[in-house]
Design goal:
Largest sheet: 8 strands, parallel, barrel
Active site: 383 (nucleophile)
Radius of gyration: 21 Å
Protein name: Aryl-phospho-beta-D-glucosidase
Helix content: 25-40%
GO biological process, one term: carbohydrate catabolic process
Strand content: 5-15%
Order of helices and strands: EHHHEHHEHHEHHEEHHHEEEEHEHEEEH
Family: Belongs to the glycosyl hydrolase 1 family.
Oligomer: single chain
Shape: globular
CATH topology: TIM Barrel
Keywords: Glycosidase, Hydrolase
Distance between the termini: 21 Å
Number of domains: 1
Structural class: alpha/beta
C-alpha cells in the first residue's frame, strides 16, 4: 500500500524502549539467597557455550542498575523491558519467598519510575529453577503449570501496583525448540518431538492461567507473551512452495500466536501432529482456559530479527540441525527443515549479519501487517536489534551499521503504523551489551558498550555509550520525525 501520511512522527504516547533479560545482564548468580537455574548448570557443561562463557557475572547489572538506569534516563527511554529471575524470588522454584530478591526488583522498579521510565516486566525469560528440573523435569511435567502460576502471581501481587505492562513468556518457540529438538538449550534434548509439543502445551497453560491471575488482581494491566516471529516468503511461484509456506506458517508461526490470540491450535497443524502421533495431550478444561485467556490478551509481543524462505522439502529432505552459527563466522549455519513439508534456504536477495541472520527491515512491517490482519491485536515490539562485533577505539565505539539497521527497521515500522497497525512500543535488543546465550560476549547488541572480555575476570565493566546511543536519544527526542531525512 502507498499510504500518504503527512505526520512523520510516531504516536504521541509511543513507548520508545530497550530490553534485557535477567540471566544475560544481572550476574550475582548466587548472591542474596538466589537459587540455581537450569542455565547456571547448563553453561557448565563443556562445549555448550562459546568459549565456556557463563552469566555468573554477566555485565553486573545487579550491582550497577542505578548507573544503567541513569544512562536510560539520559537517553530518554520511555520504557525498559526486563525479566525477573525466578530463582531470586523462589530459590527452589516454590515454597518460601526470598525477600532479598523481591527487594532488588522493588529498587529497580522504583528507580525506573523515579526517572520517568515505564517498567515492562517479562515473567519468564528461560531461567527455570534447577530445583524444579531435578524434581519433575521442569516443563515436561504438568506440575510446572501450578508452580509457574504461583511464581507469576507473586510478582503480580508484589509489583502490580506499579507495573502495568506484563509479558508472560519470552520466545516460547525458541526455548522449546532449542531445548527439545536441537539440544542447544536446557535440557539439551535432540529430536524429542512428542515431548516438544507436550512441553509447549504446558507452557501455553502456564501462560493462560497467569493471564487470568493477573487480570483477577489488576484488571487494568496490559498483558501478552512475546513470540520470536520470522515471517516466511515462498521460494518461488511454484504451488508446492506456496504450500510449503503455508505449512511453515501453521507449524512455526501461527501454532503459537493462534493459541495466544484465539486460544486454539491451527487445525492443519494439529492434524499434521496427530498423523505423526506427536500431538499434545489435553486435560479436561484446557480448551476453555486457553480461550478465556485469549479473550483477555491486550497485545501480541513480537521479537523480530529476521525473515525466512519456505521451499518444498521432499520426504527424504533436510531436517532440524543443531549446526547453527555461534561463532560469528559467516556461512557456518545449515539449512533447516521438516521432511515432506518445508525447508528454509538462504534468501539470495538479502544481506546477513556475521551470524547468518537475514537483514530485512521490510519484514518487520510484514510481521505487523500479518498480525494485524490475522488477530487485530495491538503489537509490542519487545525485541529488535543487531548483534555485531563492536570495538572500542580511543575510548569510543563507532557503530554506524547498528544505526543503519535500526533506522531502516523503524522507517518500516512507521509505515506499518500508517497502514493501520496499532504498535504500542518498540524495544531494542539491547540496552547494554550482554551475554548472548550461546554466543558469549563477543556478539554485542547494546547501545552501551560494556568493557568485558570472554574471560570471567577481565575487563573493567565500565559503561561507554556508543554512537548509536546518541542516535537513539535524538530519535526519541524527535519522536521519530526525522528518520527519513
Amino acid at each position: 500500500m502507498l499510504i500518504k501520511d503527512t505526520n512523520k512522527e510516531f504516536p504521541k504516547d509511543f513507548l520508545w524502549g530497550s530490553a534485557s533479560a535477567a540471566y544475560q545482564v544481572e550476574g550475582a548468580w548466587d548472591e542474596d539467597g538466589k537459587g540455581r537455574s537450569v542455565w547456571d548448570e547448563f553453561v557448565r557443561i563443556p562445549g555448550k557455550t562459546f568459549k565456556a562463557t557463563t552469566g555468573d557475572k554477566a555485565v553486573d547489572h545487579y550491582h550497577r542498575f542505578e548507573e544503567d538506569v541513569a544512562l536510560m534516563k539520559e537517553m530518554g527511554l520511555k520504557t525498559y523491558r526486563f525479566s525477573i529471575a525466578w530463582t531470586r524470588i523462589f530459590p527452589n522454584g516454590k515454597g518460601e519467598v526470598n525477600e532479598e530478591g523481591i527487594a532488588f526488583y522493588d529498587r529497580l522498579i522504583n528507580e525506573l519510575i523515579n526517572n520517568d521510565i515505564t517498567p515492562m516486566i517479562t515473567v519468564f525469560h528461560w531461567d527455570l529453577p534447577q530445583a524444579l528440573q531435578d524434581e519433575y523435569n521442569g516443563w515436561e511435567s504438568r506440575k510446572i503449570v501450578d508452580d509457574f502460576v504461583n511464581y507469576a502471581s507473586m510478582l503480580f501481587s508484589r509489583f502490580g501496583d506499579r507495573v502495568k505492562h506484563w509479558i508472560i513468556l519470552n520466545e516460547q518457540n525458541v526455548f522449546t525448540s532449542h531445548g527439545w529438538l536441537m539440544g542447544m538449550h536446557p535440557p539439551g534434548k535432540v529430536q524429542d518431538m512428542k515431548m516438544f509439543y507436550q512441553v509447549n502445551h504446558h507452557a501455553f497453560m502456564a501462560h493462560a492461567k497467569s493471564v487470568l491471575a493477573l487480570k483477577a488482581l489488576w484488571p487494568d494491566a496490559l498483558v501478552g507473551s512475546s513470540f520470536a516471529f520470522g515471517p516466511a516468503y515462498a521460494k518461488s511461484e511454484k504451488p508446492e512452495d506456496a504450500m510449503a509456506k503455508m505449512d511453515y506458517d501453521d507449524l512455526q508461526s501461527y501454532y503459537w500466536m493462534d493459541v495466544y490470540a484465539y486460544g486454539r491450535y491451527p487445525r492443519a497443524a494439529l492434524a499434521q501432529l496427530k498423523s505423526m502421533n506427536v500431538a499434545p495431550h489435553f486435560e479436561a478444561g484446557d480448551e476453555e482456559i486457553l480461550k478465556l485467556a485469549a479473550q483477555n490478551i491486550d497485545f501480541m509481543g513480537v521479537n523480530y530479527y529476521q525473515t525466512t524462505v519456505a521451499e518444498y522439502n521432499p520426504v527424504d529432505g533436510v531436517g532440524m540441525s543443531n549446526k547453527v552459527n555461534t561463532t560469528g563466522k559467516k556461512g557456518t549455519s545449515e539449512v533447516q527443515g521438516m521432511p515432506g513439508l518445508y525447508k528454509n534456504p538462504k534468501n539470495e536477495f538479502l544481506k546477513t549479519t556475521d551470524w547468518d541472520w537475514t537483514i530485512d527491515p521490510e519484514g518487520l512491517r510484514f510481521a505487523c501487517r500479518d498480525i494485524t490482519s490475522r488477530y487485530d491485536l495491538p503489537i509490542v515490539i519487545s525485541e529488535n536489534g543487531l548483534g555485531a562485533f563492536d570495538h572500542l577505539e580511543n575510548g569510543k565505539v563507532h557503530d554506524p551499521y547498528r544505526i543503519e539497521y535500526l533506522k531502516a527497521h523503524l522507517i518500516e515500522l512507521k509505515k506499518a503504523i500508517d497502514e493501520g497497525c496499532r504498535v504500542l512500543a518498540y524495544c531494542t535488543w539491547s540496552f547494554t551489551d550482554l551475554l548472548s546465550w550461546l554466543n558469549g560476549y563477543q556478539k554485542r547488541y547494546g547501545f552501551v558498550f560494556v568493557d568485558r572480555e570472554e574471560d570471567e575476570e577481565s575487563g573493567t565493566l565500565n559503561r561507554i555509550p556508543k554512537d548509536s546511543f546518541y542516535w537513539y536519544q535524538y530519535t526519541i527526542k524527535t519522536n521519530g520525525a526525522e528518520l527519513e531525512e
